[in-house]
Amino acid sequence: MMTIADVALWLGKDDPYNLTDSDLAEVKEKLLELRPHIRKFWTTAGELANLFQSGEVVLAHAWPLTYTQLSEAEFPVGSVSPRGKLTGWTDSWMISKNSRNADAAYQWIDYILSGDGQKGVMDVTGYSGATTLGAEAIGSDRAKELYMDDLSLHSQINMWQSVKNYDQWVELWNEIRS
Fold it and tell me: Which 3 state secondary structure label does DSSP give 86?
């Protein structure tokens, strides 16, 4: 459903997670206009990679994991990132207050934030790292490929948020998908 927020940004909405009924109607109109050109609403990175490899799609809104999978399979693929028109999320690690081994958890968090830890995640997933240590660990060419050569881009990401009118979003998305 975050495609709704993406389209809202493309339509010039300042806050893609606080959409009025009128905003949602505009988004719906645009999505219905685009719908005949959409082959599939994919659900996993692997599914999307298969759609590219089979020739069923030639362009997609995707996650970096799919790009990594296709690149490793030597499939000719490119990636772009539209400045100022991005939605995104971040994963995080948390320690339960009832943890039986909080020291080990803190050691893990220290490691995963280190250059080597971030490099490991980036190498496997193709996602960007969390700090400049990750960018340094992967080198300038790979950092550029992962959009980490200019970390000011991260300030332009409209991080995913809960929406107040969630039921309307679900209804709109189900209509577009059907």
Answer: strand
What is the domain extent for residue 67? 1-83+162-178
Q: Are residues 6 and 79 in the same domain?
A: yes
Distances in whole angstroms, Cα of residue 157 to Cα of each of 6, 57, 82, 92, 119: 11, 26, 10, 17, 22
Q: Judge if 154 and 166 occupy the same domain.
A: no
pLDDT at 84: 67
Predicted TM-score (pTM) of this structure: 0.78
> How far is 162 from 109, CA to CA, in rounded Å?
26
Question: What digits encode the pLDDT tens for the residues 128-143?
Answer: 888 889 999 999 999 9
Cα radius of gyration (the chain) = 19
Burial class of residue 27 (count of CB atoms within 10 Å of its CB; 0-12, 13-18, 19+): buried
What is the distance between the alpha carbons of residues 57 and 95, in angstroms, rounded to a whole number? 41
pLDDT tens-digit profile of 133-173? 999 999 999 998 888 888 787 788 888 899 999 999 999 99
